[in-house]
Specification:
Elements: H1 2-21, H2 24-39, H3 45-80, H4 84-92, H5 96-105, E1 117-122, E2 125-128, H6 134-156, H7 163-183, H8 200-218, E3 234-235, H9 241-250, H10 266-278, E4 293-294
Antiparallel strand pairs: 1-2, 3-4
C-alpha cells in the first residue's frame, strides 16, 4: 500500500515538473528559428546568439532543479525502508549540497586548516593558504575562451560587424527605406500652388515637428521668442500658404531660419506650413507684438 502511494507521488511530481520545466527545451530549439525569422525584420545575428545562450543557461538551471527534486524524492523513498540506526549514521554525514558546496569552493575542513596555515603572523592574526574557488577559476577560463572567440570572430576573420559597422549598416538601411518611401510619394503640387492640408493627421504631424524644431525660436504656441510671432496678421516674408511653404523650404539667408528642403520631403513641408498657417488668430498669452507687413487673405479659405 505504501509502495503504491509512493509511486503515485513520484508520477505526480514528475508530471508537475515536466509541465513546468521540460517544455523549455522546445522553446530552446525554436529560438534559432524565431531569431532567423526576426533577422529579416532587422534583429542582428549577435542579438539572436545571445538570446540562444541565455535560453541555454535557463534550461541548464531548470534541469538542475529537476535533478535535485528527483534526488530528494528518491532519498525520501530510500529512507522509508531504513532502520533507525542507519538513518542516524547517515544524518551525521554531510548532505549532498554541503559536499558540493565544499567541492566547488575547495574548502578545507576546520581540522585540516593547520596544514595550510602560513607562517605570517600579524598581531595574532594568521593567514591560510587557500586557493581560488574552482567555480571562480572556471568562470575566468570561460571568459578567456570567450575573449579568444570574440577576437577571432570580430577582429581576425571579421565574420560579424563591430558596433560602429552595425550602426553604419542600420543607418544605410534606414536611408534606403526612407528613399523608397519618398519615391512612392505622390506629389501633385509645387511651390506655386501648394494647398493647405486641413486633415487632422497632417496638422498633427506638422504640430509635432514645429514644437520639436521650431518652438525654440517661435515658442511652442507660435507666439514668438527669438523668431517673430506667427499667430497674427503681420509677416516678414508673406503670410500666404505658398509664402510660408517657401520660407520653410528655402530658409531666410543671414538668419537663424535654415532651409529644410534637404531634411524634409514635400509632404512634411506641406504639413508644417499648414500647421503654421492654422496658428493665425490663436492669440497665445505673452505673444510678441506685430512684426512685418500686414497680410490680408485674398479669400476666406486658407488655401493660398
Amino acid at each position: 500500500m505504501k509502495t503504491t502511494k509512493l509511486m503515485e507521488r513520484i508520477k505526480s511530481i514528475i508530471k508537475n515538473l515536466s509541465s513546468k520545466y521540460l517544455l523549455l527545451p522546445l522553446l530552446l530549439f525554436s529560438a534559432p528559428l524565431a531569431a532567423q525569422t526576426e533577422n529579416s525584420s532587422g534583429v542582428s545575428p549577435t542579438t539572436a546568439f545571445y538570446v540562444v545562450v541565455v535560453l541555454l543557461i535557463v534550461v541548464a538551471i531548470l534541469v538542475m532543479l529537476l535533478a535535485v527534486s528527483l534526488l530528494s524524492l528518491l532519498k525520501a523513498i530510500v529512507n522509508k525502508g531504513m532502520s533507525p540506526e542507519k538513518k542516524a549514521s547517515l544524518e551525521k554525514e554531510p548532505s549532498w549540497f554541503a559536499k558540493t558546496w565544499m567541492k566547488w569552493n575547495d574548502l578545507k575542513p576546520l581540522e585540516e586548516e593547520q596544514d595550510i596555515l602560513l607562517d605570517h603572523d600579524y598581531d595574532g592574526i594568521k593567514e591560510l593558504d587557500n586557493h581560488l574557488p574552482p567555480w571562480w577559476k572556471a568562470l575566468f577560463y570561460l571568459s578567456v575562451v570567450y575573449a579568444v572567440i570574440y577576437l577571432l570572430v570580430f577582429h581576425v576573420f571579421k565574420t560579424s560587424p563591430l558596433q560602429e559597422e552595425e550602426y553604419e549598416i542600420a543607418m544605410a538601411l534606414a536611408e534606403a527605406t526612407k528613399s523608397q518611401k519618398e519615391e512612392t510619394l505622390v506629389i501633385d503640387f509645387d511651390e506655386s500652388n501648394v494647398p493647405f492640408a486641413d486633415d487632422a493627421e497632417a496638422l498633427a504631424d506638422g504640430k509635432k515637428f514645429f514644437e520639436a524644431q521650431c518652438g525654440m525660436c517661435h515658442k511652442a504656441d507660435g507666439g514668438g521668442l527669438a523668431g517673430p510671432n506667427l499667430t497674427d496678421d503681420y509677416w516678414r516674408h508673406g503670410g500666404s500658404m505658398t509664402n510660408i511653404y517657401n520660407t520653410i523650404k528655402n530658409g531666410v539667408p543671414n538668419t537663424a531660419m535654415i532651409a529644410w528642403e534637404s531634411k524634409l520631403n514635400p509632404i512634411r513641408l506641406q504639413n508644417v506650413a499648414s500647421y503654421v498657417k492654422s496658428l493665425r488668430g490663436t492669440n497665445p498669452p505673452g505673444a510678441l507684438p506685430p512684426d512685418g507687413e500686414l497680410y490680408v487673405e485674398e479669400s476666406n479659405s486658407k488655401e493660398q
